[in-house]
C-alpha cells in the first residue's frame, strides 16, 4: 500500500508541476490573443474572427489545469471550521469523508465528461477547423486530476503519511 | 427535482468540502435521489459551458495586470503620492494607507492583492512611526475592502456574468460607494487619531517633493483612466480593457519604472493562472448547480415565499443584507455571490428592486465579508504578513466595521448612491 501511495504522490506531483507551468503559459497566450484582437480591431480596423473563440477555449483549459494545481496545494475555497474543531482521529475521519465526497463527485464527472468529449468529435469550432473534443476534454482531464489527488489525500489520512512526507506540498 | 439538493450543498460546505465540489455533488445527489440519472450527463456540459465565456476572460487579465503593477514598483509610487496628499494629517500614515487603497482600487480588482501589497509595505512603516502593529493591520484590512468596490472588480465581473447585468454599469455603480467608504474610514481614523494621539508629521511636503511624487505616480495612475474610460465609454469591452491594462502595466513596469524584470514574468504568470483558475472553476461549477436549481424551481419558490413573510420592501432588503452578511462571514465573496444571486435575484427584482441596485448591494455586502471573522480572506492575509492573530485584528477593526455597515445601509436605502453615475453615463 505504501509503495502504491508513494507512486501516486510522485504521479500527482508531476501532474501538478506540469499543470503549473502550463497554466502560466496559457495566461501568457491568452493575453497575447486578446491583445492581438484589440490591436486588429482598433488599430487596423479589421476584426479577426478567431481571437475571441481561441481565447475562450484557452480559458477553459486554464481553469482546468490551474485548478488541478490548486487542488494539489489544497487551496480550493473551503470552510475549515468543522474539521478544525476536531483533533487526531476525529479530524482524520472528517478529512477522509471529504475526500470520499470529492472522489465520488469526480468519478461521476469524469465518466460523463469523457462521454461529452467523445461526442464532441463531430463538432468543430466555428471560426477554424478544430474538433471540439480538444476543448471539452479539459473537463474530464481536470476531474481525473482531482480524483487522483483526492485519492492521495484520503490514503494520506488513512495511513498517516500526511505528517511524515506529505507536508512539503 | 428535490429541493433537498440545496441542503446537501450546505451540509457539504459546512463539513469542509471545497465549494467547487459541493456545487457539483449537490446536483449529483439530487439526480440520483429522483432516479433521474439521465440528467447526470448534463453536468459536465454545464460546467464547460459555464466557463466558455468571453467576459470571464477579464478575470485572469485583471489579476495579471494587478500582479504586474505590484511587482513593477507601481505600488510604491502610489503610496508616495498618497503621502503628499494626506501624510501631514494626524495619523498621517493611517490616512495614507486608506488613500493608497483608493488609488490601488483603480488598478486592481481584489481586496486580497490590496492587503498583501499595501500591508507588507505600510505595516512596518507604521510600526516604525509609533503605531501598534495590530492597528496598522486593521487599517490595511479595513481599507482594502475598497479595492473590489471601486472598479475594476473581479467580484462584479462574476456577478454581472451570473446575473446578466452590464459590467460597465456595475463598475460605474461602485465608484461613489467606494469613495464614500474611504471618506468614512478617514473620518473614523482622524477621530481615533485625536483620541489615541497618533503621530503627526509636522512638516508638509515641499512643492518640489509634491511635484516629483505626482510625476512618478502619473503614468501608473493612467491605468484606471484607460480601464474605466474605455469600458464606460463603450469603446472597450471589459475583457479588452483588461487586456490593454496588462500590456500597459507590462510596458510601464519594464521600460518606465524598470522594477519589473523579464525573469519575474514566469512566476507572475503561474500565480495568476492558479488564482484565476480557482475562481473560474467555481463559476463553472455554479453554472451546473444553477441548472439544477432551475430544474428544482427553487428561485421561483423563494419568489413566492418572500412576499409572504413581509411585503415591506425595506424590511426585505434588511433581511437580505443580514443573510448576505452572515454568508459573507463564512464564504468567500465569489462563491457566495454565485450561490445567492440566482436564488434571491429573481424574487427581489420581481418585488421592484432595480437589478443594478441589487447588484451593487450584493457585491458590496459580500465584499465586506472578506474582512469579517471567522472566515475572511483579507484577515488571513493581514495576519500572515504581520503575525497578528486574526481575532486581534478583528477586534481592532470594530470602529471600521461600523463604517462598512453604514455604507451597506446607505447603499441599500439610497439607490441614488449607486445608480447616479451609471445614469449620468447613460449606462442604464
Strands, helices and their partners?
The complex is a heterodimer of chains A (169) and B (428).
Chain A: H1 2-43, H2 50-72, H3 81-85, H4 89-119, H5 133-136, H6 138-159, H7 161-164
Chain B: H1 4-15, H2 19-33, H3 42-51, H4 58-71, H5 74-86, H6 92-105, H7 111-128, H8 133-144, H9 154-163, H10 167-196, H11 207-232, H12 238-256, H13 265-296, H14 298-309, H15 313-330, H16 333-350, H17 355-368, H18 377-386, H19 390-396, H20 398-413, H21 415-424
How many H/I helices of chain A?
7
SSE series of chain A: HHHHHHH
Share of helix among residues of chain A? over 70%
What general form of chain A does the structure show?
elongated
Given as residue ranges, the uncertain stretches of chain B (5+ residues, pLDDT < 50) are none
Largest sheet of chain A: none
Tally of contiguous helical segments of chain B: 21
The helix/strand order of chain B is: HHHHHHHHHHHHHHHHHHHHH
Q: What is the gyration radius of chain B calculated from CA atoms? A: 22 Å
- How many β-strand runs of chain B? 0
Shape of chain B: globular
What does the largest sheet of chain B look like? none
